[in-house]
Design a protein that fits this description.
Layout (H helix, E strand, L loop, with lengths): L58 E6 L11 E9 L5 E4 L8 E4 L8 H6 L8 E6 L19 E11 L8 E6 L2 E4 L5 E10 L4 E10 L7 H6 L4 E2 L2 E6 L20 E10 L1
Length: 270
């Protein structure tokens, strides 16, 4: 079987440190840090005073509360979002499932505008939150692209997944069928059926493959995740980016810093 670019094969992306994202939103490039007013405070009177009805402070409204642990500073988040101006004009969105999920780090180290850094704290997986962001926590006095100067911004954010600090190499395993008999260990040569997809995205690969466990012949999460399976068993593996296709991803199907999921069926030992 000829392995294509996304097939289970040796995937080497180097010792790249996991540092969140430095990519931008399509079109408006929101990860750039918003300029701040020169005195560090929001202008309320005189030149540049907030217009009637303008957002005076960051507002958060959970329209759907998710589940699990709340987002904390330093967590890596995977989201879908829609951003609008005060007049309702959409300036950016990735709600279309054909567009990649966006990921960023919550809190002060994140490469997003201040309103996002602070506005997502406390969200839970599966939750939906509306953010009303004053211009001083967005793109400030200059604006950017389709966003005019001193523009308050409004976002609806759906939290797809959270990777907590310290979980960068944690592979989640779920046995859908336990199997029986011999147990996979490091050094075994195995034959598997597999189906892979990006979480929240498209199928990326499927087929049959033979490899030796622990020999770096497959991506790290599969190498580690298959250990302990039994003949005939079916296991679902959820792999964080550092155990799959890394910070760079693998275009066009695997965006940067993607969680991927593989369903593995152990067919036999060779």
């Amino acid at each position: 079987m000829v392995m294509q670019s996304l097939r289970l094969g040796r995937f080497v992306w180097g010792a790249v440190a996991f540092v969140g994202l430095a990519i931008g939103f399509a079109g408006c490039n929101p990860p750039a840090e918003a300029p701040k007013p020169t005195d560090g405070k929001e202008t309320k009177t005189g030149e540049g005073a907030a217009k009637p009805g303008a957002v005076s402070a960051l507002k958060m409204d959970d329209t759907k509360v998710g589940t699990g642990e709340p987002v904390a500073e330093g967590d890596l988040l995977f989201v879908r979002y829609k951003g609008t101006l005060a007049d309702g004009k959409v300036f950016d969105s990735n709600t279309d499932e054909e567009k990649p999920i966006f990921s960023f780090t919550a809190g002060p180290t994140g490469t997003v505008i201040e309103g996002w850094k602070k506005g997502v704290i406390g969200m839970k997986t599966g939750g939906v939150r509306k953010l009303s962001i004053p211009w001083s926590m967005a793109y400030g006095e200059t604006g950017t692209g389709a966003i005019p100067p001193k523009s308050d911004l409004f976002f609806e954010i759906q939290l797809i997944r959270v990777m907590k600090k310290g979980e960068e190499m944690t592979v989640t395993k779920k046995d859908l069928k336990p199997g029986s008999g011999r147990v996979v260990k490091v050094g075994d040569k195995v034959e598997v059926n597999f189906l892979g997809k990006v979480i929240g995205g498209d199928e990326i690969d499927k087929g049959k493959y033979t490899f030796t466990v622990g020999k770096d012949e497959v991506i790290p999460g599969i190498d580690a995740g298959i250990v302990g399976m039994k003949l005939g068993g079916v296991r679902r593996l959820t792999l964080p980016p550092n155990t799959a296709f890394g910070p760079m991803g693998r275009e066009p199907l695997v965006p940067a810093n993607s969680f991927v999921e593989y369903e593995i069926t152990l067919l036999g030992f060779k």
